[in-house]
Amino acid sequence: MRRMATHVITGAGSGIGAAVARRLHARGDDLVLLARDAGRAKELAEQFPGARTLVGDLSDPDKLSWAFSHQTLPDQVDSLLHFAGVVELGEVGETTPKSWRNQLNVNLIAPAELTRHFLPQLRAARGHVVFANSGAGLNAHAGWGAYAASKHGLKALADSLRQEEHPNGVRVTSVYPGRTASPMQAKVHQQEGKDYDASQWIDPESVATTVLTALDLPRDAEINDLTVRPGR
Fold it and tell me: pLDDT (tens digit, 9 = 90+) per residue, 78-99?
């Protein structure tokens, strides 16, 4: 019988994170869902009955240690799944320090800080860290400077972590989805001044399938990088 695993998940409220959380919840795994505030934690608990929640604001990673010191962290962590993210488009000449900091905090520094907090449990479980990156983490385009920089940094974080933790049996996977139908994608289209048609983009469930493939891979192998592109 397969042992029920414990997964710590950010961004479980929508998009790819929600799709992965639904799949793991349906098969009976234990979920620990990070929420930005108590209200959001209540919503996630209702959405995923039986799941535990943690509260921490990813836009202010300096305060995550303080927030966690007042909560009970899980003793067992088999995977840490980073799906939360923000995007604010803008040319370099128009992007303010506030916008740079917000995207770097949520998309890069907070994942690093969360990983630091859960590494002891991940090492003990010979667990898995999954970073939801982006096509922008491989190629930067005009108007995407700050977001792409945060995602290029996330690739560097994952690559360094993989080499550091390989001796401890911790697997690290980066997933690079193309445009995926989600509230974030709707926001991107709004910023681009374009009409949004979800049917034109990747279904979050398709990306979730690739994530579960990486998680469920036998221990003799590890998927380092997965690029997922729209098939339409």
Answer: 999 999 999 999 999 999 999 9
- pTM (predicted TM-score): 0.92
Q: Beta-strand (E) ranges in the chain?
A: 6-10, 30-35, 52-55, 79-82, 128-132, 171-177, 225-228
- Give residue 206's identity as a one-letter amino acid code: S
Residue 158 contacts residue 110 (beta carbons within 8 Å): no
How is residue 163 annotated by DSSP? H
Rounded distance between C-alpha atoms, residue 169 and residue 149, angstroms: 29
**Tens-place pLDDT, residues 153-194:** 999 999 999 999 999 999 999 999 877 656 666 666 677 777
Give the integer Cα–Cα distance in Å for 20 and 3. 18
Q: Tell me the DSSP string of 143-154.
A: TBHHHHHHHHHH
User: Which residues make beta-bridge pairs with 155?
Assistant: none
